[in-house]
Amino acid sequence: MDYQKKLISIILFTLFLSCIRARTGQFIYFSDAHLSLCYLPNASNDDECEINSGDAGLFGDYYCNNPFWLIENSAKKMKELLPNPDFIIHGGDTNEQFYHDHFTIIESIKFVNEIFDQYFPGVPIIYTPGNHDFFPTHNSPYYNTPFFTKLSYSLGAMSDAARATIQKGAYYSVNVNNMKIISLNTIMWYKLNDLTEDLDGDIADQLSWVESELESANDHNQGVLFIGHISPGCSSFSLNPSFTKDFQDQFLDHVQDWQEQYGSIILGYLYGHKHCDNFRCGTKDSLHILNPSLNPRKRINSAFRIYNYSDSEKILYDYSQYYNNLRDSNDNMYVTWEKSYNTKESPMNFQNLTCQNYRAWNNKLNDDQTLFDWFVSNYYPKYEPTISCSDSCKKKFLCAQIHLHRDDVEDCVY
Ligand SMILES: *[C@@H]1O[C@H](CO)[C@@H](O)[C@H](O)[C@H]1NC(C)=O
Ligand SMILES: *[C@@H]1O[C@H](CO)[C@@H](O)[C@H](O)[C@H]1NC(C)=O
Ligand SMILES: *[C@@H]1O[C@H](CO)[C@@H](O)[C@H](O)[C@H]1NC(C)=O
Q1: Labelling 45: which of 110, 264, 265, 399 has CA 20 to 30 A away?
Q2: In this predicted model, what pLDDT tens digit does every residue of 194-205 receive, in sequence order?
Q3: Domains and CATH numbers, the chain
């Protein structure tokens, strides 16, 4: 009897231990698919590419938007690497950059989601709108329109609450495991949006909605992951950040408040848009990660990421970045995806993705030119030749990574 009791308590204790151990989950991140529905290899695709860019490559082109088969090939590779992700983030800018109308935008979003749905049936695909996913470009409305209604029925199954907020302002949240993923419509805060540029206050009630979502997540002890398309802070498409304002600062003040109040449940913010590999740390150490793009236009290589996270520890552990060397793929008529790096491994050696580690890394980048050159070689995922960054560029680049307010970046530089 005694022996049996002992055995049972040992079994129970082991079960208890396995319950409190941090659960590691994985998700896939891709962004900026920029699907070109009329892509033709070998054609001088003036409508789909930059004018006079020459003959378009078989698997895509450094001057063009994406053929669907490159996007499909990336999904196939993701499936090989991670057959059962918890969820997939689709970071926006699904539509091509040269041509827009409401119909093409909706069809592109559905097309790309269907590609991923075929490889990952039943896995939630969580989308956030990009500036090219509106017509006219950048012009997200801030009230219900037929386009928002159509969008709300084009993103697969979702809760009534999510459908309602998409119809209101193209933002929504999804609960997966013990996580809440909050998809922001950052285009309402974009300075090139003519419809909202003169608005201040809480556009389409998005900020107050986020606050209620955070409160609810906090009550239920959920982790919160934010996704959006356009990141705050100083940035540009080149390595040299500009100080122009392309984002409304009111969002930043809220980020700071959220971090102060709910920092312990927020894993971070993930963005696309810039087609580059970068990060931003804000006041109170809010973490903003800029992810590379699936589209190689503008002389970059396509890339996607696989993230590890814990919903019990409420932290992002690491990511692995995979890229396609498009020049080689077109030359060999065969697509390969290779790992560029993992944040846990050398040279980054991050124990986790937190501003504590990113700030220390920023200091190392400043002190060690070899590390800085390595980091820059991944900015446009291993595109060659690497674009160089002079001393003044380096200073701006590093300052922009550790401040979100433009004034703070300028103070850091000058
Ligand atoms: C495109 O050009 C390449 C090289 O000239 C050729 O091998 C290939 O068959 C062409 N493809 C098409 C679809 O015309
Ligand atoms: C991250 O995921 C990979 C599998 O994709 C796994 O091998 C690795 O141990 C995970 N990392 C952590 C910290 O759990
Ligand atoms: C994250 O990494 C830092 C530095 O390596 C470490 O001090 C901290 O305990 C880690 N946090 C978690 C939750 O693992």
Answers
A1: 110
A2: 999 899 899 999
A3: 23-413 (3.60.21.10)
